[in-house]
């Protein structure tokens, strides 16, 4: 049978009120900052016999002045304050909690705080969720009864997984509301269905399953077709919502059309990019001969505006770049050099870049 809250004070009294405290859900070892949900006598007996507890107990004796304050604080909360504050500091500084397993760091913290540093698994199991709930409560308090705007974008992480990020903020009459990252969710694929699902889950989290459909007034996203489709489907559930797409994305799509209209310019930019990619001798030769001109840019298709910037560069420095490629590079060294020399020789290429 699970322990009842009436039995916890008996265990605390038996094993020492100076070392253990309790609340309605757990017995807490104040020395180790470790909770024991549903604690039993056997669990506590085993714990006090461990070397880690003995070491923590020794440190506890060194801070008698704050013992009373610590006892009062831990009895008022389901979690001990020191590991909670430690976990909050790590998360706020974007430091993974597993870094506490580093022996040098752990010894440093224990030496200068005179506290036992909890295991990273203890922080993950008992404290990360508590901090999450506190932050969610802070967001709900900040939003209050205001109408909201929502922005969704997706990216890929280092493992290639698609991740949807949701940002929300309050729509106020007198000042812009503070934006909050409401949700980060891994999705199987990026389409209208997954975007709409993540959107709805996010407002459910905000209002704790009581979705206030009339309060969602603005949805901001890029202009991808699946985002536009998601906005149309969400309009059924949120009739007051206006879907606004990103102007920068629209300009990028214009640039994509420019690539299709001028295929020779696109091939030239790609060929010259290959010429200087991982070729330090060619880079050195370019700088020695054309020191006043920066190296040709290396546009990335998925980075907005980089191709247009590259085309502007070629239009501005066409003649010296053409002279360098055709007169000082050998087409036998690389296929890309041969293609670039051929494209620079076309009469139409200069006009395309003007």
Automatic annotation (TrEMBL):
Coiled coil regions in record: none
Positions of the DUF659 domain: 132-275
InterPro entries: Cggbp1, DUF659, RNaseH-like_sf
GO BP annotations listed: regulation of transcription by RNA polymerase II
Domain of life: Eukaryota
Entry's Gene Ontology cellular component terms: nucleus
GO molecular function: double-stranded DNA binding
Protein name, as recorded: Uncharacterized protein LOC100902024
Species annotation: Galendromus occidentalis (western predatory mite)
């Amino acid at each position: 049978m699970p322990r009842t809250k009436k039995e916890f004070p008996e265990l605390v009294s038996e094993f020492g009120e100076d070392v253990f405290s309790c609340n309605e859900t757990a017995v807490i070892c104040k020395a180790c900052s470790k909770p024991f949900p549903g604690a039993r006598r056997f669990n506590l007996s085993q714990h006090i016999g461990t070397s880690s507890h003995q070491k923590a107990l020794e440190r506890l004796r060194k801070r008698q002045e704050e013992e009373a304050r610590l006892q009062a604080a831990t009895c008022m909360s389901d979690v001990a304050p020191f590991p909670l504050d430690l976990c909050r500091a790590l998360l706020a500084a974007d430091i993974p909690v597993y870094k506490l397993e580093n022996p040098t760091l752990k010894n440093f913290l224990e030496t200068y705080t005179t506290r036992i540093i909890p295991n990273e698994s203890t922080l993950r199991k008992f404290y990360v969720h508590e901090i999450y709930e506190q932050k969610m409560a802070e967001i709900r308090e900040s939003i209050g009864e205001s109408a909201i705007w929502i922005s969704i974008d997706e990216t890929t992480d280092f493992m290639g997984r698609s991740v949807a990020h949701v940002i929300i903020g309050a729509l106020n009459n007198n000042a812009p509301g503070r934006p909050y990252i409401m949700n980060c969710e891994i999705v199987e694929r990026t389409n209208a269905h997954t975007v709409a699902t993540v959107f709805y889950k996010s407002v459910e989290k905000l209002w704790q399953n009581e979705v206030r459909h009339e309060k969602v007034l603005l949805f901001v996203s890029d202009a991808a077709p699946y985002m536009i489709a998601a906005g149309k489907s969400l309009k059924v559930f949120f009739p007051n919502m206006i879907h606004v797409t990103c102007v920068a994305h629209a300009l990028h799509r214009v640039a994509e059309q420019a690539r299709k209209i001028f295929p020779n310019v696109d091939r030239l930019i790609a060929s010259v990019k290959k010429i200087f990619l991982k070729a330090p001798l060619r880079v050195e030769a370019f700088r020695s001969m054309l020191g006043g001109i920066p190296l040709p840019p290396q546009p990335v298709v998925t980075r907005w505006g980089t191709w247009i910037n590259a085309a502007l560069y070629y239009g501005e420095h066409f003649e010296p770049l053409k002279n360098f490629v055709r007169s000082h590079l050998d087409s036998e060294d690389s296929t890309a050099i041969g293609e670039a020399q051929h494209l620079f020789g076309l009469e139409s290429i200069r006009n395309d870049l003007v």
